[in-house]
Amino acid sequence: MKSWAGDGDDMLSLLRVENLSVIESVTVEFTDGLNVITGETGAGKSVFIGALKLIMGERFNRALHRDESKKLLVEAVFNGDYRDINPDEREQFEIEDEIIIRRELDSSGKNRVYINGRMATLNQLKSIAESFADIHGQHEHQRLLDPSCHIEFIDSAVDRPLLEDYESKFSEYSEKRKKLEKIREDLSAVLREKDMLEFQQNEIESMNIDLEQDRELEERLGMLGHLEKIRENAAGALACLQDEEINASGLIGSASSLISSISSYSSELEKVAEQLSGIEYQVNDISAVLENIIDTQELDPEELERLTDRKFRLAGLMKKYGGSLEAVLDHLEEVNRKLESLVFDEETAEKLEKELSGLEKSAKESANYLNIARKKAASELSEIIEKTLGELELKNSVFKTEFTEAERLDPLGGIRAEFHLSTNPGFDPGPISRVASGGEISRVMLALKDVFASADRTETLVFDEIDTGISGRTARMVAKKLCNIAAGKQVIVITHLPVVAAGGEAHFHITKSLEGDRAKTDIKKLTGAEREEILATMIAGDATESSLEQARELLSGGD
């Protein structure tokens, strides 16, 4: 299993607070390693936690505005390596190895955020600062209580080459899978277009459009739809022309004979004779047409139904494809052209499917090796954590990691991890977020932080009275664990235990006084005799010779 050492390069170096709750104006300069904050109950220690949360992006509570006629100010300076921050944000706020965050609330209630002196939004602040500090309180949910983060902690104990091998193979597999899915989507789209075009092609071609004949369709339908009237009127007209006793054909013929007999006497009469002869021929032609209509036009219901159906189908095609039969035929030509130009990249898809199958097999093998290593690391971690919990007076605790398989390969290797815990003999371990009681959670969190400190990406850890409810040997172990974590992280601890306070590389003490009728909090970094006196008072309630001796012993590293 890998080493758990951290580098401790990043830290909160300064916190300035003005006009916040009981704080009028204080500035604290923190150091790396273990920083401890002590003070009497109600002195305002929690206000510093609240100020840090504001720096991390929490919203202001107007009730904390000490004097609304003055500006409320919270400012922090962080030093470290910030290359992981989004490049656009690094450029916008000129971030290199120092970040200055300032939040202001003026008398009108207007809230302003500045990052390195430049105006920022609250969302930008959260994006940049959310990983700068991890604040642990007795009742707060932390990353270690979030099952989705547990696999990350397990991976910090696994050899990096195993992780990198799987990440590389899964990345290649995922990239090829996306490419294949894109080709399949494109192919599916082409097939859908092909189906649509073939439908249109069949729809138009099935009508066998003949422009000349289909233009006469309306006339033919008109004839069939009014056939009875046509025959009746044609018969009447024929009777007038030749069938009646006195008819137009006979009268015109008689007139033509009379004029023809005298046409030689005058050119004018000759012309009239020719005209009457022509009219006689026209009447005969008309009569022949009318006789044909009467003899041949009979109503065929099937033909009428067929032509009516064709009329409506052609009208539908014209409505869909351009408004005229010519436009419908032009659309058919375009459909045929598109069908000929469609490209089906099935060969590439088949090739990628074969490649993908090989990549999936390789990624699964890599995931298998990785997950075996994860389970081995989890088993070893369980032993370490159970031992640590025992040292923190949670003896007989059982800590284990439950693994579940995912349905398919994913960035996590197709596996999920969740920490389970039991602190009481005879009870099966359950999800850590549900089984740890309020009194136990502090020690459980401390044990986990001790083991996983280097895996946590956050470089500043804040513990708000994490040692509540413990004393004696357990308190000494808590102090030791905090020092262990502080070897690789910046740790800020608000504590009431002298043994914890004595382990700090920097000790800050908070006092509260009355200024008129209002409480006022001050904070001071303790050195030498001042620190001995405060520790002695924490030990015995007063700085007696005996308690001072105990304080000096604690500071010297004794128990």
Keywords, separated by commas or semicolons:
559 residues; alpha/beta; Rossmann fold; six-stranded antiparallel sheet; six-stranded mixed sheet; 19 helices; 15 strands; disordered N terminus
Quick structural overview:
The chain is an alpha/beta fold and about 550 residues long. About 55% of the residues lie in helices and about 20% in strands.
Question: If you had to describe this structure to a student in words, what would you say it looks like?
Answer:
The chain contains 19 helices and 15 strands. The chain has 559 residues and is of the alpha/beta class. Among the domains are: 1-132 and 458-525, Rossmann fold (3-Layer(aba) Sandwich), CATH 3.40.50; 189-341, no CATH class. Helix 15 (438-452) packs parallel to helix 16 and helix 18 (528-540) crosses helix 19. The longest helix is centred in the N-terminal third of the chain and has 46 residues, at 160-205. It is elongated, with a radius of gyration of 49 Å.
